[in-house]
């Protein structure tokens, strides 16, 4: 499986993720990509890439200029910083306002216009890219708009984004969507995200890091702070990770083919970059096995508990007969689940069984990639499960479909499968 692993130990921003993915292209593809970005129709925006060095490591830095001015310089020059503006680590700015709160004076020497989410959608729909890319960009921007809406307590329709920041963010988001598509990535895994720390200055005052919109987007994502008291993860970076990443975990076992270094714009004592590892991996992940010994529960109650645990998302639930203390017959209840629902499963075990304690074991799970196909047969449409990986392919017909045919045609299960295989 073609896998992308993202090292976000120095956070994530749209330009850094773009630069890291850009480095995974070959030289001809890099030139074509820059030309494509400058020809897709983002208003007044110029997109470029350059080599830069951080702590002795060479990588790529992406620059987006609007009307000939690099966007981060506009806001730093006029000291009009929003949550994303305080850190040159980024090149993206949303600068959102509620409709009724933008009455303060400005001394800018440039037009200070704002775009609604509807206007942003119109820009996206006008881009010279595929419908798939347009849909991806729109969905990612929705994550940002919904976050700003929640933070400000107003509908998405009343949130306005700074016009300059809008074109910059649209460029970053579109670039990442195009690169993900070009690279043919099938699975994206990321490390837990370093969000930074401290405080940042914005139009609304001094805000904590992570910025409120970033914190909203990163709900249920493993994050942490560090010694760097700067904003390391921006709303755009957070939204891109939330949209594309399927799992936030340690680097899986994979054969890496290329590594990309996407550089931020600020210098720290740590290398300010986002690393992207492109390679192949088998379908592996960590799972939790929860177990407990029980000798005082009825068969009906344990059966009900097993049904509840399956409905809650457990991968497997089973019992093993054992002989417990005082020669009492009992059972071991074993529940296998993914890490992200462990606490939920533990609560259900305590609620629906008589146990007073639960054991936990962490295991690495190896599994085949699975998909279900619908095929036309002499019996009509039948679902077929195809599993691949580790040099093996397995095919299995959906039991419910096969058993239904067997009853209707007065055939055995074996006879139905034999006909389907023909």
Structure write-up:
- With 422 residues, the protein is α+β, with helices and mostly antiparallel strands.
- It is 33% helix and 33% strand.
- The chain contains 12 helices and 22 strands.
- The strands form 7 sheets. It has a 5-stranded mixed sheet. The chain has a 4-stranded antiparallel sheet with strand order 17-18-16-19, covered by helices on one side. Strands 2-3-4 form a 3-stranded antiparallel sheet.
- A hairpin with a 2-residue loop joins strand 20 (369-377) and strand 21 (380-389).
- The longest helix is centred in the middle third of the chain and has 22 residues, at 131-152.
- It starts with a strand and ends with a helix.
- 35% of the residues are buried.
List keywords for this structure.
422 residues; five-stranded mixed beta sheet; 12 helices
Please describe the topology of this protein.
Elements lengths: L1 E6 L6 H9 L4 H11 L7 E10 L2 E10 L2 E2 H8 L18 E2 L15 E3 H10 L4 H22 L6 E4 H21 L3 E4 L2 E2 L4 E4 L2 E4 L3 H6 L5 E2 L10 H10 L2 E2 L5 E10 L9 E9 L1 E12 L4 H13 L4 E8 L5 E10 L3 H11 L6 E9 L1 E9 L2 E10 L2 E6 L1 H11 L3 H9 L1
Parallel strand pairs: 1-8, 8-13, 9-12
Antiparallel strand pairs: 1-15, 2-3, 3-4, 5-7, 6-7, 10-11, 14-15, 16-18, 16-19, 17-18, 20-21, 21-22
Compute the number of strand runs.
22
Number of continuous helical runs: 12
Low-confidence stretches: 74-112
Q: How would you write the strand order of the largest sheet? A: 13-8-1-15-14
Over all CA atoms, what is the radius of gyration? 26 Å
What would the principal axes of the Cα set say about the shape?
globular
Helix content: 25-40%
Q: Describe the biggest sheet?
A: 5 strands, mixed
Beta-strand residue percentage: 25-35%
Q: Whole-Å distance between the termini?
A: 30 Å
Oligomer: single chain
Strand pairing plus helix content: what structural class? Answer: alpha+beta
Task: Give the mean pLDDT.
Answer: 86
């Amino acid at each position: 499986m073609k896998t992308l692993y993202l090292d976000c130990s120095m956070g994530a921003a749209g330009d850094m993720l773009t630069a890291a993915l850009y480095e995974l292209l070959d030289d001809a593809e890099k030139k074509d990509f820059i030309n494509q970005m400058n020809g897709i129709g983002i208003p007044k925006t110029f997109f470029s890439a350059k080599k830069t060095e951080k702590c002795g490591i060479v990588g790529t830095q992406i620059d987006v200029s609007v009307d000939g001015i690099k966007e981060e310089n506009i806001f730093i020059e006029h000291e009009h910083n929003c949550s994303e503006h305080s850190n040159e680590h980024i090149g993206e700015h949303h600068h959102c306002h509620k409709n009724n709160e933008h009455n303060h004076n400005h001394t800018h020497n440039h037009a200070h216009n704002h775009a609604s989410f509807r206007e942003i959608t119109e820009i996206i729909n006008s881009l010279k890219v595929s419908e798939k890319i347009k849909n991806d960009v729109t969905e990612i921007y929705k994550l940002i708009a919904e976050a700003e809406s929640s933070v400000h307590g107003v509908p998405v329709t009343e949130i306005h984004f700074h016009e300059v920041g809008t074109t910059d963010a649209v460029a970053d988001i579109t670039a990442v969507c195009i690169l993900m598509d070009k690279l043919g990535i099938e699975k994206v895994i990321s490390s837990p995200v370093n969000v930074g720390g401290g405080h940042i200055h914005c139009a609304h005052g001094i805000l904590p890091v992570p910025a409120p919109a970033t914190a909203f987007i990163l709900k249920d994502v493993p994050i942490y702070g560090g010694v760097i008291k700067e904003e390391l993860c921006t709303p755009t970076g957070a939204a891109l990770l939330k949209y594309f990443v399927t799992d936030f975990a340690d680097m899986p076992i994979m054969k890496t083919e290329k590594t990309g270094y996407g550089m931020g714009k600020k210098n720290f004592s740590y290398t300010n970059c986002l690393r992207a590892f492109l390679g192949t991996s088998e379908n592996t992940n960590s799972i939790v096995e929860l177990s407990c010994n029980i000798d005082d529960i009825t068969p009906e109650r344990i059966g009900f508990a097993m049904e509840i645990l399956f409905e809650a998302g457990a991968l497997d639930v089973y019992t093993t007969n054992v002989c417990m203390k005082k020669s009492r017959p009992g059972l071991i209840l074993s529940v296998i689940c993914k890490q992200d629902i462990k606490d939920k499963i533990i609560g259900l075990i305590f609620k629906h069984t008589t146990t007073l304690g639960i054991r936990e074991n962490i295991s690495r799970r190896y599994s085949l990639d699975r998909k279900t196909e619908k095929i036309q047969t002499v019996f009509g449409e039948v679902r077929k499960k195809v599993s691949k990986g580790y040099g093996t392919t397995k095919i299995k017909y959906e039991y419910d479909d096969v058993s239904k045919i067997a009853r209707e045609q007065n055939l055995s299960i074996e006879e139905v499968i034999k006909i389907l295989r023909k």
